[in-house]
Amino acid sequence: MRSIPSWDNVDIHLLKVLNVLLNECSVSRAALKLGLSQPAVSTALRRLRDIAGDPLLVRGRFGMTPTERGVALHATVRAVLEKLELMTFVGAPAFEAAQSRQAFSIASPDYLHAGHLGRLVGRVTRLAPRATMAMHALGPEYDWLGALESGEADCVIGNWPEPPEHLRTAPLFETDFVVLMRSGHPLLKSGLTTQAYLEAGHLAPTPHSVGPRGSLDMYLSRERLRRHVVAQVPYFNLAPYLLLQSDLLFTCSRQFAEHYAELLPVEFLPLPMALPSVCYYLLWHERSHYSEADRWFREQVIFTMREEVPPSLRTQHVLPA
Asked: What InterPro entries does the annotation carry (predicted)?
């Protein structure tokens, strides 16, 4: 005899996933619509199947099709979500940036050059002059996952190859690696080959300062290559200044290099190895996804982070609903 399903473990997030899955009849399309990864949606579907004691969606000739139990639940789930939305938003005051005294908070790595954050501060203070804004550095002592979950941080900027599946994400921009060096460096005339790159002295960030392992380190390890790191620096923004009195090289994003090439006597060359572009994205927690104020702030982040990105590197994206 089948045990009675326990719906005590169902939260609003699971109901929303189930509703979109039954609408789309596809894990991949549901993931795209929800702004989640496919593995995250698949995990939610497994939980729903366990709770319901029914597959809910099964494979058919043209994809997935709801079971009888799934069809029966769909109408109920839609009605519950509609009532919750009505209870939550009817009568709630609309967010008005010009009048808001909201305290916004964002965390980002220090290898995101200051020009990006400067434009963000300028835009937010112009559109919401009564609001405040705090910025946190992603470092070894900052629990950014906990900060998102608790609401201490509204969103985080990252570029790690695999962001956490349970967080919402929106692509910001893509950029490639270049090699920064002082003006007059011998390699600017002779050219930068892979061999010259590996034999040169390098300035590198300290291991704890870059967070999850970066694309460059993974590439060198995979190809069994090793560069000669002569000095380490705890903050990315110190590196360009430390290049001025030596022939060290510093590998960084093109936008970071372009920013400092306008300020200091430094120049850059393309990285001689073929690495994939670096993808920057915005992360936020489900708890703040439906907040009008947080949504407005995310829109300002996305706008400013893409404002001066070359069209060839710009990632087209519409913020998920």
From this structure: LysR-type_TF (IPR050389), LysR_HTH_N (IPR000847), LysR_subst-bd (IPR005119), WH-like_DNA-bd_sf (IPR036388), WH_DNA-bd_sf (IPR036390)
